[in-house]
């Protein structure tokens, strides 16, 4: 009997505690909300008092400026909204290219630092120390300077007639004339080729099946893309005076930014790879080798999966840093989101609104990235221990 | 409990919410009590505002800041120069970090009506042009179809060039940089075939080329760029002081008053206009909230508009621009000051 009474008393105390908690938390949330409203109101009033125009109406006005390059079609008559979309697309383009390249560089350099060969180890170490310990901004300016000084002038560029053209204007390449068909062909070929490679790997290999599948898929994507060009014709860069038309272009700004982000982030990723591999206990190596696995097999089947588990959470934060660092584009003339935001601010003077848009875009991008990396992390850690 | 981490955030928000609106007006009081005029200038604009090898600021816009200081504080050296890039300039003025923006900025409707700033006048009539390397053998901007253009972010140039190329049915590729320094280094490295900005800036930039003779400025002027100083809105008293400082420099040139002869003129001139201007016969200064010698000090310490132009931009300076439309109205130019009386 007394036991039940005790339970009752405990439950009552617990209910009272929960009510207090809900009340305090609700109160704090309410105060925060009120303060936010007050800040917004105050900012609005101050802008009005200083006779500064505000609001998001400008998004549907024509932007009136051009972009040097854009993944999505853009011209001066398009709206500010479209300009921001073009900026986001340009940012995503360099960020995705950077993430892929930095991962490859990071993996290779990380392996180099673990190698037994002293020259490889030394080179890897030098790479990491140089690129990790100097500011990215300085690296970008240096790379951009070298790229623009080294490349030949526009009139006297290196040409591979009908295929490629390299000058201070950047690299102009022939691409399949039917863009969408080429992308579809590449995707289809990647799917088929990747599956075939994975199946083959399953049959003949013990480790690294996923990697073989991925590599097969990539190779088939390139082949499919090329095949579409052969079948459907090419769009080739042609030069008429200053005008270069057709083909696709990689500008020096994009190349410099991509290279800079790749090297800087690659150096950081290399250290993650090394840290991950070194954190796997030495006994795991010994056990794997004792089971008769070769060093390669041991790396692929035993060490690598465990290292990955340790490296993924910090890797996610490196990827997010790369996305944010891409905003340094503004210093070397690549039209990313921040560069377009800067131009917009000066055309219409609505700094607050534009900065909010730019911040929201980066936040959204990195939240999606965090979600994706969280998913990958969950998959990796779920593997049997 | 998730309460604790919210506390500092809430405090910060409370601080923000309570921060009251900045006091409008009374810039003059602020300037007098601080003892300096805070003036926003260009980071690097040869002829307009440029720090020389000793770190001393020189240029037409710099002289204007000094003239304001001479009129208000009695000493042309009591200026604190804040170098600003084209994106910071109006925000710095809005936020009250500077009292005057004198940074070769174009007066446009949008800027005058929606940025919370007010242009006080025009101290240089400019227009946008194009500079190309001579080796391209181009003699007209109409032959620039498809060219790559270096442009500075946050300038009227960006929009003008889009309009002009569209109007002529031509294409171009802009490469947009943040600062004038980044543009000139990219342009002289050959990244762009064309550098487009105000004509006066092009002439200034050419002085920084490895070999100035290798570059030509094309004849086409594609826009009107009236450059002038601006102040924050809402302080009419300060607006008037800044506006009439420029007029005083123009009036001095029209009356033939120079840095060299102003003392003698002040003593000897029988011209009522000169006597009034220099505060000998009447006190115009008190109408502006200044003393009677405000205009005298501008001429004595800084010089008239023509002197400032010749020193910084004229044919004998490094920039080497002709006076052109920036001459006085009675010498074939556009510079015209309302009467000081």
Separate helix tally of chain A: 11
Which chain pair has the greatest contact?
A: A-B, 58 and 61 residues
Helical residues, percent of chain A? over 70%
Summed over residues and divided by their number, the pLDDT of chain B gives a mean of 89
What is the strand tally of chain A? Answer: 8
Number of helices of chain B: 14
> What's the number of extended β-strand segments of chain B?
13
Q: What is the helix fraction of residues of chain B, given as a range?
A: 25-40%
Binned strand content of chain B: 15-25%
Intertermini distance of chain B: 73 Å
Please give the radius of gyration of chain B in angstroms: 22 Å
Low-confidence parts of chain B, pLDDT < 50 over ≥5 residues?
1-24
The residue-averaged pLDDT of chain A reads 86
Quote the beta fraction of chain A: 5-15%
For this entry, what is the oligomeric state of its chains?
heterodimer
Shape of chain A: globular
Q: What are the secondary-structure elements of chain B, in order, as H or E?
A: HHEEEHEHEHEEEEHEHEHEEHHHHHH
Task: Give a short account of the largest sheet of chain B.
Answer: 6 strands, mixed
